[in-house]
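User: Could you check the structure of this?
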Amino acid sequence: MTETAERDEQVADEEQGADEEQGAGLRARRLAAHRSARRVFARFGFHRTLRERLAVLEAAADVHDLDELSDVYGDGVVEALETKVAGLLGTEAAAFFPTGTMAQQVALRCWAGRTGNPTVALHALSHPEVHERNAFSEVGGLRPVRLTSEPRLATAAEVRDFEEPFGALMLELPLRDAGFLLPTWEELTAVVEAARERDAVVHFDGARLWESTVHFGRPLEEIAGLADSVYVSFYKSLEAFGGAALAGPAELVEEAKAWRHRYGGMIFQQFPTVLSVLVGLERQLPRLPEYVAHARVVAAALREGFAAAGVPWARVHPEVPHTHDFQVWLPYEPHVLGEAAVRTAEETGVVLFGGAWDRGGPGLSLTEVHVRAEALEWTAEDVKAAVAEFVARLPEQVR
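Assistant: Sure, the predicted structure tokens are below.
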């Protein structure tokens, strides 16, 4: 390497280090501002102290008999939760897993053994492809193939006409990285039927399936009933400490439990997490339709607020949210938006955008908006006022 090249590489490393340090500092400020804010759209577990998180268990006596013996390697309260989840989803059985990554690997590995085909058809933006470091292929012995990379759900035609065979079709509902998108009920049933025509099994990545009932206009058991197996998460919408479940036919679930043990998921005791899940099912699950409805109010107010503030281009995606989560896109660099969001929170005590901003293209960035119980206090006018405060802290030359 030449001296010039070495110097250029050193400068690049230093710039990257400075960017990371700046990003870490901004994140710390964002979390601190969120912690002290008087108004937010959502407060998740990582926004709360350990004492506050443990307080969730104060309601545990309302959802389970605390005088029974604690669980040992998946019995007791864990089995009670598994039975409850299977009932909610209308499946023969369910198995508790410490993580969704493990649950889905196990599910699709089991299906590969049954179909004789380790190929899994999925979307390029699906969670295993984007966020799991190639776990399907590196750990599970599976071969993922991408039906499409378009920022929408795969179509029945794409499933039916895909150029090579696959043993399983995995559908993420909703598709988070495309904007928490859901298909219509008719589109979903057509996609499932197209997979059946190819003799493929259908697995739903339902990490956020709980809140999909409003969009589909169907109960959970009818939605889950379309698939051969379903994974659901317990912390994303139910606000539990963690955990996931795989639900489906009893024979598949029994095999999945054997693989759960092999993958290191046979944990000695899990009662704190499981009790927090039972509390979430009792407290949060019934409220999710209310959150979805209010997300639509928030989204409309954001659009109107940015238009009134004179921002040259802004997009809420999808325009009418399919769940209680959605994206906002603005024509600025991520660091500009991140700084403006944090300053707004620090100076007004109101958090409009509580998450990080990601680059969506040259001079274009996006963030996610999550509407939970705390957001129900916001009126449309409150949202518009917060937008005006936020835009006032953006550079004049861009506006």
